[in-house]
Automatic annotation (TrEMBL):
Alphabetical list of InterPro entries matching this protein: AhpC/TSA, DUF4369, Thioredoxin-like_sf, Thioredoxin_CS, Thioredoxin_domain, Thioredoxin_ResA/DsbE_sf
Superkingdom as given in the UniProt entry: Bacteria
Protein name: AhpC/TSA family protein
Signal peptide limits: 1-18
Domain Thioredoxin: 241-379
Subcellular location: Cell envelope
Entry keyword annotation includes Disulfide bond: yes
Keywords, in A-Z order: Cytochrome c-type biogenesis, Disulfide bond, Redox-active center, Signal
Length: 379
């Protein structure tokens, strides 16, 4: 069995990390009739682990150590499969394009049995039971999202069409339906690592006050863990860009390499929009941002876009291709963008709307939300 331990930024040499919970995962699926590898991916000790073993007549085995129950992915890579084929994930977290599934690794013996990995029953993990309960509760919403996505497919080539925009707005509204389900789950499962990950695993903390109240519902055991303490630091930082706070000041170079400051826009309503040329959801959202800009640009409103690009040519091309006539800045450091770190940006697209005094009045608007917020502010 081969094991690689790596950070997202690059490979690390094998190293012993103190872990105190051992697990085994024994799997049995139907024989697929060709050589294949089984890949198990998860996080342990702050590193990403990718463990690989051979699939022999449908049987495989893994063993390892974890410091806490963690979400993992197990999937098959057939010898006949294209290793470069992208692996996607559906709205319910299901794996698309390969035979695999997400699940929770927990200490002790875990078994996986079924015709395929996707169809398999996973037993022996206490956290997995909670994970399955949450997925079951979210299934009606996931089914609706999948159906809307299928409706959108025929219009994907023309995202400016009325049909696509209507379905896109419907998709965004439906996505919000998972929120109350997750909130109820966290409240009813205060000692579950699944609850902890649901609450703390979100890339964006739009409402730190509400998030903090939900976080306090978790057990002291979870809140006092090293991960809990790290999240408390992140939560505290989120208040600096919460509603009512003054947007942190910054200066960064524009497309001509000249410094441009947020302070120079004081007296206007400003949308600070974090994006990147390589970000599909950002590019999909740009037409909506453009509609809002065209409608309100003459009413004391401006957009200052901060790019998380590294390649200047790609950044400039995306601005031109998408027809984005507003202000653009970047230090071309990608995720190390100084302004992105100042605003605690961990995902894009992400945005903040500030008033003429520099106070944040709205955040993370998608679809028609931006137009509606601006209509109220600029009436």
């Amino acid at each position: 069995m081969k094991r690689m331990i790596f950070l997202l930024g690059g490979l690390l040499p094998l190293a012993a990390t103190a872990q105190d919970k051992s697990f085994t995962l024994d799997g049995k699926i139907n024989d697929i009739g060709e050589p294949a590898k089984v890949i198990l991916s998860y996080s342990a000790g702050g590193k990403r682990v990718s463990d690989t073993t051979a699939l022999q007549s449908g049987v495989f085995h893994f063993a390892g150590k974890i410091d806490k129950p963690v979400q993992a992915i197990v999937m098959i890579l057939k010898s006949s499969a294209n290793p470069r084929m992208a692996m996607g994930m559906g709205y319910g977290g299901e794996i698309l394009g390969r035979d695999g599934t997400p699940f929770y690794l927990d200490e002790g013996k875990i078994s996986l049995r079924g015709a395929t990995i996707k169809e398999a029953k996973i037993e022996g993990s206490a956290a997995q039971k909670d994970f399955e309960a949450l997925n079951l509760a979210k299934k009606p919403v996931v089914d609706k999202l999948t159906a809307i996505n299928a409706e959108m497919a025929p219009f994907a080539k023309d995202r400016e069409s009325a049909e696509y925009k209507a379905l896109y707005d419907k998709l965004l509204a439906t996505l919000k339906e998972t929120g109350p389900i997750e909130t109820a789950f966290v409240k009813s499962h205060p000692n579950s690592w699944v609850s902890f990950n649901v609450l703390t695993g979100k890339s964006i903390i739009s409402d730190p006050k509400t998030t903090e109240a939900q976080y306090k519902q978790l057990s002291a055991h979870l809140r006092n863990s090293p991960d809990g303490k790290k999240f408390e630091e992140r939560l505290a930082a989120a208040y600096t860009t919460s509603l009512g706070a003054v947007a942190p000041a910054f200066t960064q170079n524009d497309t001509d390499g000249k410094p441009f400051s947020l302070a120079s826009l004081r007296g206007k309503y400003v949308l600070i929009d974090f994006w990147a040329s390589w970000c599909g959801p950002c590019r999909a959202e740009n037409p909506n941002v453009k509609l809002a800009y065209d409608k309100f640009k003459g009413k004391n409103f401006e957009i200052l876009a901060v790019s998380l690009d590294k390649d200047k040519a790609a950044w400039l091309k995306a601005i031109q291709d998408d027809g984005l006539p507003w202000l653009h800045v970047s230090d071309l450091l990608g995720w190390d963008n100084v302004v992105a770190k100042l605003y605690n940006v961990r995902a894009v697209p992400q945005n903040w709307l500030i008033d003429p005094e520099g106070k944040i009045i709205a955040a993370n608007m998608r679809g028609k939300d931006l137009e509606e917020k601006l209509a109220k502010a600029l009436k």
